[in-house]
Design goal:
10 strands, 7 helices, 4-stranded parallel β-sheet, about 35% helix
């Protein structure tokens, strides 16, 4: 461990949420809940800027086991939340000569079966009146992605909406087409889907599992909060379903 340590303020923000100390790790956009020793270490760094080993001993002797302090410091150092006292070198600009595309997002239906109060998609309509993507358009988009990703090992196809599960037939067609292209080109293919989960069933879950889907599900916490905002077109809550 170096003789002087400092908080890497450019890489971390910390704040209190009730009785908890929460750290936002900027490089990874991760949130960490800090325990008592983490909170005390942060206070020490905020107070002194750079902290020496002698200051650490003075502050923590008798309060926490020495091994626990060292272990916590090593965890913070590993996350680059804490580092040596030297000012970090400015990042060198990276020259980008080629940025091949390997992900395509398909908006398979602008319609949605919910009418959430805060939805940013003000043009959403009901599923039956939504603009549904046809297979020819989707297949061409997938083909263009494979062409652009010729030097990449994998391709990712994302299904979005509206509510994409209101156009499952197209999703299945696209999966068959994309998997065939992946076999032809020797690439790995992954699928992602963002859904409100109200139309999920066991058969679909098995299908998504079999075809390597990553699912992002929108949900607003406890029932009373969720049902206040995430409602059906008829105004009913959707937490239970």
């Amino acid at each position: 461990m170096t003789s002087t340590l400092a908080l890497r303020r450019q890489d971390v923000r910390d704040f209190r949420f009730g009785d908890e100390r929460v750290l936002l790790h900027i490089p990874s956009t991760s949130l960490f809940a800090g325990d008592g020793i983490v909170s005390d270490l942060l206070d020490l760094f905020h107070e002194h800027g750079e902290v020496t080993q002698d200051q650490l001993r003075t502050c923590f002797d008798g309060r926490y086991p020495a091994a626990q302090v060292v272990e916590t410091l090593h965890e913070l150092i590993g996350l680059r939340i804490v580092g040596d006292g030297a000012a970090p070198s400015p990042a060198k600009p990276v020259e980008v000569g080629d940025l091949p595309v390997n992900t395509v997002i398909l908006n398979v239906n602008t319609g949605c079966n919910l009418a959430c109060s805060y939805c940013y998609k003000e043009d959403l309509s009901t599923p039956v009146h939504g603009n549904r993507m046809d297979f020819a358009t989707a297949a061409r988009a997938v083909d263009l992605t494979f062409e652009a990703a010729a030097q990449r090992p994998s391709v990712n196809v994302v299904f979005f909406g509206g509510e994409p599960l209101t156009n499952v037939a197209l999703i299945r067609q696209v999966v068959d087409h994309a998997e065939a292209r992946a076999r032809e080109t020797g690439k790995r293919i992954d699928f992602s889907l963002t859904t409100n989960a109200t139309l999920l069933n066991d058969e679909l879950v098995d299908y998504f599992q079999a075809h390597r889907f990553g699912l992002t599900i929108s949900m607003d916490g406890p029932r009373d909060i969720h049902d206040r905002h995430r409602r059906t077109i008829g105004g009913h809550g959707t937490y239970d379903v």
